[in-house]
Structures are given as structure tokens and as C-alpha cells.
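Entry:
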Amino acid sequence: MLIIIVSQNHFIWRKGTTNIQPTINDSDDLLHLEKYHEKLNGFSRLETKFFNSIPYLVVIITVDGEILDVNKALCKSVGKKKEEILGKTILELPTEKIGLFRQNVAKQVVKTKEPKSLFDTTATHFFKSTYLPIIEKNDKSYSLIILIEDITDEKRKEKQIIEGKEEYFESLIENSLDLITVLTKEGIIMYESPSLQRILGFTPDERVYKNVFENIHPRDKKRVKNFFNQILSKPGRTEKITYKIKDKSGSWHYFESLGNNLLNNYSIKGLIVNSRDITSRVTSEMEKNAILDNTSEIIAYHDLNHNLIWANKAYQRETNQSLDELVGKKCYHAWGLDKPCTQCPITKALKTGNAFESVFSPDSKKTWPEYFKTWQIKADPVINEDGEIIGAIEISYDITKQRKANEEIKRAKNHLEKLIHNTSEIIFSVNQSFIVTLWNQTAEKITGISSKKIVGKDIRNQKFVQNAIELNSFLKNQFNHKPESLNQLVLNTVFGRNRMLQVSTSMVKDEKDTITDIIFICNDKTLSNGALGTFRSGASYLIEDTKPEYMIDLFNELLLQNHQGLFISRSYNSVVPKLRMNQVTFALLSKKSKQHEHAMYSLDDVTNCIQDFLKRNKKGIICLDRSDYLFTLFGFQTTLQKLYQINDIIRRTQSIFLLRVNNDLFNRNQTEILHEEFFSLPSNQTQHIYLDNDLFAILMYINEKNKTNDFVYQKNICNHFSISKVTTQKRIKSLIDNGLISFKKRGRIKNLFITEKGKQLLRKIS
């Protein structure tokens, strides 16, 4: 032990240093020597003071145990003066037994030259002793310092704490809700906590020294004995088991027990079993499982790695595996699959913490065998109190029958939609809120109004119904169960012409007999009512128009009379989408290509195409569009000769032929020849039309503007002729009613065009 004593700023003395010999170099050092001796004497006093003031019992001994020095604290502890102690051995301090023990320790320190600490006691005191060797320069131990600390008070406090803890744990055991049992290695009960009486009705004295297996259920006894043997064979390891045990009244309880082997523990020397009555929990689980096992849905609990933790009876039946076989198995392996399903809702629930739902069927999942059913699978994450995802609950519904029924309904619906959209009648429906809910393809083609623009709109706000007041009154009364008839609708088309429709209606009712929708089935009677005139079978008609829209519309209208049509044109993309292709054969005026099977390049091709078509379709409708291509390519005379031949075929087959020409290509004589060979359209016949000068001037004005491709609006006519808005509207209406002009909407404004009938009237007058 090294003790250094330092005054305020100077080194004074080091314990363990001997033979202190200052070096004197000259006579001047004598003064320093005197001062040195003064310091040395001062140190001696300081050493004595320090030695007697430290809070330890200090004794300095020789190797043989002879006491060389002691401090005042030690003298006080043993009740003797210093002179009475010096020269004696440590065997006499404080008792021979303790002294001998301390002497042996001193010998060990001398031998090892290492400090050593130990604890020893007397009848009334506890001590902690530290042995420190004092080593000479020659590295030989010649004496030891023993520092003895009286720790009696500390030990008493520790004892009080331990005794307090023992009382605390004893109180815990006595008042514990669990049953604590101590067993011998033979299974004999040595102790049971007081909770035994509350749980099983026995007092601890009634069970002590009895075999613990006596009250175990016969079905569980073997399993409990195996559990007991596991505890015996694995000291220090805790085992767990659930079983049934009989109470004093003969009733059965479910117990969950934890066992630990403490036979080697000096304080216990037994097997500790901590048991809890889980009857309520097990009963609740059994009731829950009974419910889950008797449901038709398959229910399973998965861990984070898709391993099955539990599955109900329905799951077991569907996979043809027992619960023992399923537990611990990957869910996809349970279904005979090699890997998790794509878009698996369980995977998504485990990953995101949100619920997911999906439908799995052999049709939607290529990895599912065809014999698999269709399942609607819902997965919900299981989240613990810390907000951590610990698993997922799967609930799956067998919707195979429902899916097949839905498919049948879907097929029937698709079939009905095809019937609705491919019929020759206009079909539309309106609900209680006067919203259009259906607008079939025939309605689109005849009116030019697409379903996207009208479905979902209030029919009362639509301008295409001429007799809107009559229609609105009919709808209002029908929805209020006030019968009213509606036989006819007059619709304005985007082409500027009216359509007269014969109407029949049907009511759609819900389970409360409330009318929810009214379906309108309309036959287009425009042709039969003479609005377009009467077309004669075996006749060829000339359409003098620079644009194809009117001809396409007329062609489609003629097809409504249950005819088949052949449409020949040089334009494909702008024409075909507007035709009723279920009744039309399309032929292209062009060199043959892979894209167009019916492509024609020569006049003979055109003639042969028409002839072949009419062999298959009696009384067909033939339309030759873009005749300018033929007249330009082959000349007027050659083309006209083929037209004569075609017209003869038309007459023989009692068909109808429409030829669209651009009069700007022909001179006056050529135009007259065409008029001699072809009929004018019935609707273009002008012999009974008479116009006053004002109407004629407006018609001429519109025609001139059309020639220069200028837009013509009502406002232009008002300004040009200096007439009022009302007068302008009346005159425009008169021209439209006579079929001399039509209009196309540009937003809310109507752009006016002269019709072929109007052009024919102007030519006739001129």
C-alpha cells in the first residue's frame, strides 16, 4: 500500500520509503539540513495524527503475526490500551478462531504479494478486512498493514431489507390469484399457497404429502406426467402445459401451469409449479371455436410469415387436412401451391396494416387449378397494444354459385344490350328525375346525338324534341300514376331534319310497385309518312351534294326498311363509323390491298361488285359515293356507259341505287344527261313549292355564302336584309320546313346550309 502525505505545496513523505538520507554538497547545505529535520519532525507528528484519525481499524503486523502498531480506533474497538496490544499476535484479536483465520490470510498475502480482502464476524459484529503487503527494496515482504472496517450497521440494514422482502414475497404468495405448488422429485406435494382453497376448494393441509397426479383428468394424466418428467430432466428451464383438474366438489377446471426445477436451490429443494385457473378463458374459446367451426366461411389466423396458427373446420374441410396438419404450414402450401398468390390480400394486410379484399378464381388466377372454387378473401391485420402487426385474420367466402349466377346475369345483360343496340327501333329510357338513362345505337345514328352527350342529362332541357311539352306532360303524369297516352315524337336531328317516331312505352317498377323508369320504343315512320318522299324499287337516284353526310343518313334510313346495303366509296375512315355495318357491305374505290379485301380499281370491278352483291341480296340498297374518282379517272362517256349498265341491273333486281355527284365537275350538257338518266330524290321534288321574293332572296344568300365556305347565322341574315330577329326566325323556319335548308349547331349557334332540294329549286328557277 502506498500512502503519500502532501502538505500545501511540498512533498513531505512516502510511506514505504526507508533510509531517508539527504545529500549535503557543501557547508551551505547545513541550513537546508536543519530545515529538512524540522520537516521530518513535522511529518512524524502528521503521520501519527493521520494514523489515528482514519475511520478504519489499522494494525501493522510482521509475517509471523506479531503486532507492530495499531491506531486508536482499533484500541477503542477491543477495549485495550496500545501498550497492552503491541507485541502480541493477531490470534488474540478479537478471538482465537478469527485470529487464526486472519493469520492464514496474512500468510497468503505474503506468499502472493497481492492485496486481499475478506469478511469475518464475531458474535455481535461484522468486519471487512483488507491485507496490504509492505515490500522492501529487495522485493521481500517483511510486514503487512491490515485495514479493518466495521460493517455491522450495513449488515443489519441488509438483513432488515432481506427480511422485509421475504415478508413481501410471502404476502404475495399468500394473496396471489395463482396457485403455487412445491413438489418433491416423486411428485409429492410439499407446499401449496392459500389460493388453493379459493380455486379448488381444498385447504393446503388436505393436499400436503399427497400425489399431485391424483386429481388430474384421466385423459390428461399421461401428458402431465410427461410434463413432470421434462421438468425433472431440465433443471432451470421453465415448461408450460394446459390440462383439466378436479376440484373438491368434483367439478373440472382447466389449468395452465408453468413448472421449474429448483431441486438444487438450497432454499427450496423442490419443483415449483405456478398454476392458473383458465376455465373461463377456455370455455369462452371453446364457444368461440364452436361458432367459428360451424360457420360456412373459412377462417384462419396467420403469422407474419404466412404460417397458419389456427384454422376453423371449414378451412380443414376445404383443404382436406386436420388442424394439426395445418398449424405451422404456409397457407399457400395448404392449398397445394408453391408460392404466395399474386395480389394476396393477406400479404397486403401484413405489409400495410390495412384491411384488403380480393376475389380469387381459376379464371383470374392462372396458378389456381380449374377445380378450385371462387373465393372472396378478406384479410384484416392483427395489431398488438404497441401498435405492432403480429399477424392477420383471413375470412373467405365461397362465391362460386354467386359468381356463376352473376356471369349468367352478365351474359343475359350483354345479350339484352346487343338486342337493344342492334334493333332497328330507337330505344331510350327516362327515370323519375327525368334523367335519360339509356340511349341506344339506333338513336345515335338516326339523330346524330351520341349517348355520351345525352345519358345522364335532364330530357326536359334538351332541344331535340319538337313536341317537348307533350313529352314532359306524359312523363310527369306517368310517374304520378296518372295514365296518359303518347303516340308520336318528333325529333330534330343534328343533320337539320325532323324524324317522326311512332312511340310505345313500358314501365319499370320496383318491389314497392313504384315506377322508376319509362322505356320508349320508337319506330321511325319518317319514310312511310312521306317526309323523305317515296323511293321506288328498281330506280336510280342522283344526289347532288358536295358532302357525304346527307347521303349516309339517307342510306341508313333506307336500311331501316330491313334491306341489305352495299356502300362504295373512296373514303373509309370518315364513312364506315357512320354506317349500320351489321347490314352493310363496304367496298373501297382503290387499288387492292391487304387492309381492304373489297377494293376496286376499274369500272368493271364496280359493276361486278354490284352484280355479285345483288345476287345474294334481293332488293338491296346500293350507294356509289365519290363518283368524281371514276369520272376523273375514266372520263365522262366511259363512266356513263357503265352507269347505264348498272341502272339496268338495278331495274332487273328491283333494287335502289344512289349516286352522289359533284356538279362542279360537269358542264351543263353533262348535268342534263345525268338528270335524264337518274331520278331526283323524292324529298327534292320542288314542283309544289312556291317561294315569295323574301324567302327566295334568303335562300340565294345562304347558297352564295356556302359556295365561299362562309358561316351563315341568323344574325347575318338579320343584318344583311335589315329585318327583325322574329321575322328572320319565321323565314328560316319556313325554308327548313320545306326542306330547302338545314343547320348544324356550333355550340348554341346554328350554322345554315342549303340542301340539295334547295339547290335544285334554284337551278329550276334560274
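Confidence is low (pLDDT under 50) at residues 1-21.
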